[in-house]
Amino acid sequence: MWLMLHTTRRQVYFSATVILLATGFYTSIYIQPYLHVLLVHQPNFENVSSGLGYPESNLAISLTPQDHVQRQPRTIHLVWNITSDLRAPDGVTKRVYLINGP
Questions:
Q1: pTM (2 d.p.)
Q2: Cβ 84 vs Cβ 101: under 8 Å
Q3: Are the beta carbons of 62 and 48 closer than 8 angstroms?
Q4: By residue range, what is the domain housing residue 38?
């Protein structure tokens, strides 16, 4: 009886290993063409102070204070309505914080 359970357990482990390896192989083959979309570009921060090191397609915004120092200062008053409610954005109900929302 113990030998039968041991053999069955070994077969289950072997089957699970084969399934995991096959899944990993399948994923690596079919995900490879889309891998560049999944990887996040990390900007080069070596020359940030000089404004260099950012590729043209990067969404970073270079701040230029010299273009704005001539403006008159002003105070902006904002009214924030922050509430919390139960919502299910992904199908699971959870508490979310609403900013200026119903």
A1: 0.30
A2: no
A3: no
A4: 2-99
